Amino acid sequence: MIRLCLIATLSVLIANSAFAQQTSVDTLYTGLKKATSFTFGNDAIYIVEAGAHRVLKLGMDGKLIERYGKRGSGNYQFDNPVDIATTNGLKLFVSDKGNNRIQVFDKRWQYLSSISGNDRFQTRSEIRPAFLGVNKLGDVYFYDERSRTLGKYNEDGAILDQVSLPAEVKQVSGIQLVDGSILILDKKSELIHRISENGFYESFYEAKGTHSFFYRDNEVYVAKNNAIEKLGPLTKKTILSFEKKSEISDIYVVENKIYILTSHALIRILEE
Are 132 and 175 in contact (CB under 8 A)? Predict the structure, then answer.
């Protein structure tokens, strides 16, 4: 049996010894303060540490490279940041929810601009950005909690559209952009909705008990209270089982490696 303890947040117990022998689990980084999301770019891992109002840059081996930001309202400062996304590693976008803006940085973490309003589509000038994603063209989509719509901007910060959500979407708890579609985690309906980038409803995946997800190659990796599962068109596979109920903030898949983020730690699982 392999046991993995993550500072009172996650207690992991592999389901059985045969499964344990096939599963490699490594703790890359611990001691995070209310980590909410992460992404990859420039051969590095960027983690949003909401509890410390900053972003951490780690090497692919999990070693700390740099800490960016502190609490405040100026450039390079954050107030309750939520999510982070990158355009092929060239630009980084951080949803700075407490400051009603998205801050934009280049790959050297030089401040470029802020997205802070969309007067063209709203009566209110302020936005309240939460979850965000970037498509292959570099267009940025984010969920605006204030208007309950998706804002669409190009990578230079110019607004392109405001997308209304279909009635089927009851709550937005995470988004991912894939192949011209937007996947939305809806914890209230316990579904992952798939809509077009124009807001038309396409399909859904069942997501009972799901805290976060990652879509790749027609398969959805879902992090639940007690397991990480991979859902295919006709298959379901349990990657890892947890002994105790846990809540995973974010999940990301790179080749055969599954990265999971809790509020306190970043974990890497090698999928056989």
Answer: yes
Which residues fall within 8 angstroms of residue 38, CB to CB, at 6 or more apart? Answer: 45, 46, 47, 48, 84, 250, 252, 259, 261, 266
Helices of type H across 98-231: none
Its pTM stands at 0.89
How much is the pLDDT for 9? 39
pLDDT band at 265 (very low <50, low <70, confident <90, very high): very high
Q: For residue 247, what are the CA distances in angstroms to 157, 171, 190, 223?
A: 33, 18, 15, 8
**Is the model's pLDDT at 251 over the cut of 60?**
yes
Report the pLDDT value the prediction gives residue 190, as an integer from 0 to 100: 97
Domains and their CATH numbers in the chain: 1-30+213-272 (no CATH), 33-164 (2.120.10.30)
Q: How many Å apart are CA 180 and CA 42, to the nearest integer?
A: 24
